[in-house]
Amino acid sequence: MMKRFGIALAAAAFTMVGGAGIATAQDAQPYIDADAEAGAAVFRQCSACHMVGPNAMARVGPPLNGIIGREWGSIEGFRYSDSHVAAGEEQGGVWTVAIMSEYLENPRAMVPRTRMAFAGLRQEAQIQNVIKYLAGFDADGNEVDPAPVLTEHYGGDM
Ligand code: HEC
């Protein structure tokens, strides 16, 4: 595990030196420009298992308040799969916009033995819209301006 982490770090450093893959404020822009209301409609697909808002509790899946910038697998008392915990370590431990975007396209590609029975969202716009919607809830489920959340937690090296 330590060894794999070391390799990942080396790869990240190489990418930075190469100048490619450095996240900038511009990368967050499509998410800031996305449609949170359309994202609320997309979230209906998630709401069979997930809650957001002031009274959000664990259901089949953990509550998603403050998920952008939140630590992977951090809801107290929720039994995450080992695969989810391991993937979280591989991804750096925090739900950034970039990681969430990749996850929602195909959860099983990032978390091979996930307990989340969800195939993924095929359209980029759906992913951007639902991420903007989720960024609009803080850790207590209160509604906040998603733009600074999306910029601060876009991911990569800003
Ligand atoms: C059929 C139920 C189900 C659906 C539908 C579903 N999820 Fe999940 N989700 C889960 C479960 C169960 C987990 C825990 C996975 C594990 O431990 O392997 C999870 C985990 C997550 C996590 C990780 C949270 C953390 O604390 O690390 C995120 C983020 C997430 N889901 C987002 C979504 C979004 C966004 C949607 C809709 C686009 C969605 N899920 C649809 C059941 C579901």
**Low-confidence parts:** 9-20
CATH class: Mainly Alpha
Strand content: under 5%
What is the tally of helical segments? 8
Q: What is the H/E string?
A: HHHHHHHH
Known CATH architecture? Orthogonal Bundle
Say how many strands there are. Answer: 0
CATH superfamily, called what? Cytochrome c-like domain
Q: Ends: how far apart? A: 26 Å
Any ligands, ions or cofactors bound here, and which?
heme C
Arithmetic mean pLDDT: 89
> Which assembly state applies to the chains in this document?
single chain
Name the helicity range: 40-55%
CATH topology: Cytochrome Bc1 Complex, Chain D, domain 2
Largest sheet: none
Topology of this protein?
Elements: H1 2-18, H2 25-32, H3 36-43, H4 82-90, H5 97-105, H6 107-110, H7 124-135, H8 146-152
Heme C binds at residues 45-46, 48-50, 60-62, 64, 67, 72-75, 80-81, 83-84, 95, 104, 111, 114-118, 121, 130.
